[in-house]
Amino acid sequence: MAYKDVYEGWKRDPEAFWMEAAQAIDWIEPPSKALFDDKAPIYEWFADAKVNACWNAVDRHVEAGRGSEIAIQHESPITHATKGITYAELQKRVASLAGALRMRGVEKGDRVIIYMPMIPEALEAMLACARLGAVHSVVFGGFAAHELAVRIDDCTPKAIIAASCGLEPNRVVHYKPLLDEAIELAEHKPEFCVIFQREQEVAKLIEGRDFNWHGFQYGVKPAECVPVEGNHPAYILYTSGTTGQPKGVVRHTAGHIVALQWTMKNIYNIEAGDRFWAASDVGWVVGHSYICYGPLLAGAMTIVFEGKPVGTPHPGVFWRVIQNNRVKSFFTAPTALRAIKREDPNGEWIKRYAKHELQAIFLAGERADPDTIQWAQKHFGVPVIDHWWQTETGWAIAANPLGIEELPIKLGSPSVPMPGYDVQVLDDAGHPVPAGELGAIAIKLPLPPGTLPTLWNAEERFRKSYLDTFPGYYETGDAGMIDEDGYLYIMARTDDVINVAGHRLSTGAMEEVLASHPDVAECAVIGASDALKGQTPLGFLILSAGVNRDHAEIVKECVTLVRDQIGPVAAFKLAVVVDRLPKTRSGKILRGTMVSIADSKPYKMPATIDDPAVLDEIKVALQTIGYAKD
Ligand code: COA
Ligand code: AMP
């Protein structure tokens, strides 16, 4: 079948489409129907089924006689570890950890925070929660204690599972002090913590609260898979919104596994026994869907990579991992390829390694620029597929579905909508715009299985953030267009979310931190264009009256404050002191215009600007930090 037939087939009968996709899952009690719309516009999928995600990702492959195949391959160019874990071993390890968690009181529905680096134990912790029906919430290691504390208070975990440390190329990330500080800061206190002690750093445990990963499991009865309802939350994953309070994206179990299983064959062309690698982090949605659950549901091998595209130790490390593991489909962020391209423009490192069965490179997380795609096409000779999705959707909204049909690639476009997504471009009044015209990208409700049904403990915020602007649609927060052939183009965010090195960050959250500096009266943060990272945050500070300290000192303190409060991942390194910010007469800061000035791009003088002279002041200030060059 061609893509068009599959997409039209879904449109004609979505219920039949998803019930058929559901057949690839082992159900304890099968669903009576796919869509549950009695609470519309809040929709649920396969709600009356009983199922277990861990069974489907692990145990059923062992039952099928594939226990000796590698499930997880750990590759750490930082520690030089390379080790495979078979499905049978994984089953044992996960059942044992789940048994220990249960012995300490973790049950179905309890939340467990996981704060771990890229080691197989992070996946084991996720799967152990899934085994018990506990709801995991993984927190990215690049976030600081305050961000962890915010998440602890929001999802009130019974337990936290962490590692003693993470390893960045230039430093050891001391997880344990960050964890201790976060628990100290949070109002909610977990009952206990489980610490995986890495040999690079043995953390000091707090008697009575912290347990050693291994000792904790000693002599416990392994846990079996606990049946959960189809609409039972599998996990909560926090993502950046417009404010400092992150959004807790909820993923329901049945829709999550049905959708991911469908994507593995149809988008990535991956089946049992194949080898798949998503070079992301378990702390992001890509890590949830395509390092942990997706490849394991398919019975494929997944790679857990602890390293960077460059500098660990060289720009050929990705290709070495692909060669040594005979990777079939590879998934990374455009920024990673840009980093490699910068160090290896002629692909000398690429030539050193065999590609074996590499069939395609998938890109997501940010817009894939044509130069980078062409560079990869030239050096790999395989399709380089941009696909577009969000933490909220959990899987691709638009892609080039390699497992169905390889569609012609159009540079700058993540191709076409996937079944389940009726994507439309709307004007401000919510009317569809003609092909080729820019507008807000929205998806007709209901969203397909695997997408967010709501935000954790925040249904009102869910409605306000996503459903209220265009009734009957989900508002993606992205702007763009659809061309005559139905190809989508994602151009920009419509909110204050920026994308730095494939990481989604909130300028609003950074502004909240800057505003807490005692000398700062007012501030703004924008995302300026960056050749490597896509965007980079720039801060503007207006100082309180009477402050006459050295500006460089204040900027330095602000940079440190953001790093300490949000984390190194915010990559907030540049700020300038200004007297005024450009605003509309109603007081709205003209961030879009500031971005154009920073990027030296032409802009239209906003009709509502209060005082146009401020723009010149902003330009001069930006020039002092290397931006707004003519
Ligand atoms: N734990 C702790 N700190 C982390 C971290 C983690 N898991 N991940 C990143 N950081 C830190 C980095 O060490 C860096 O700290 P520094 O300021 O002390 O140098 C900071 O956060 C910023 O990191 P990053 O923006 O990633 O920049 P970088 O210069 O270290 O690396 C790239 C640049 C392009 C190589 C890197 O960003 C990259 O590989 N990006 C791809 C991202 C990706 O795959 N995203 C998933 C979306 S699909
Ligand atoms: P995240 O939730 O971290 O996955 O970030 C989602 C956002 O990243 C989207 O809303 C887009 O703004 C951006 N994004 C992700 N993938 C793409 C892509 N392929 N092209 C353009 N933007 C993308």
Automatic annotation (TrEMBL):
<dbReference type="InterPro" id="IPR020845">
    <property type="entry name" value="AMP-binding_CS"/>
</dbReference>
<protein>
    <submittedName>
        <fullName>Propionate-CoA ligase PrpE</fullName>
    </submittedName>
</protein>
<keyword id="KW-0436">Ligase</keyword>
<dbReference type="InterPro" id="IPR000873">
    <property type="entry name" value="AMP-dep_synth/lig_dom"/>
</dbReference>
<feature type="domain" description="Acetyl-coenzyme A synthetase N-terminal">
    <location>
        <begin position="3"/>
        <end position="57"/>
    </location>
</feature>
<feature type="domain" description="AMP-binding enzyme C-terminal">
    <location>
        <begin position="510"/>
        <end position="588"/>
    </location>
</feature>
<dbReference type="InterPro" id="IPR042099">
    <property type="entry name" value="ANL_N_sf"/>
</dbReference>
<dbReference type="InterPro" id="IPR032387">
    <property type="entry name" value="ACAS_N"/>
</dbReference>
<dbReference type="Pfam" id="PF16177">
    <property type="entry name" value="ACAS_N"/>
</dbReference>
<feature type="domain" description="AMP-dependent synthetase/ligase">
    <location>
        <begin position="80"/>
        <end position="444"/>
    </location>
</feature>
<dbReference type="InterPro" id="IPR025110">
    <property type="entry name" value="AMP-bd_C"/>
</dbReference>
<dbReference type="Pfam" id="PF00501">
    <property type="entry name" value="AMP-binding"/>
</dbReference>
<dbReference type="InterPro" id="IPR045851">
    <property type="entry name" value="AMP-bd_C_sf"/>
</dbReference>
<comment type="similarity">
    <text>Belongs to the ATP-dependent AMP-binding enzyme family.</text>
</comment>
<dbReference type="Pfam" id="PF13193">
    <property type="entry name" value="AMP-binding_C"/>
</dbReference>
<dbReference type="GO" id="GO:0016874">
    <property type="term" value="F:ligase activity"/>
</dbReference>
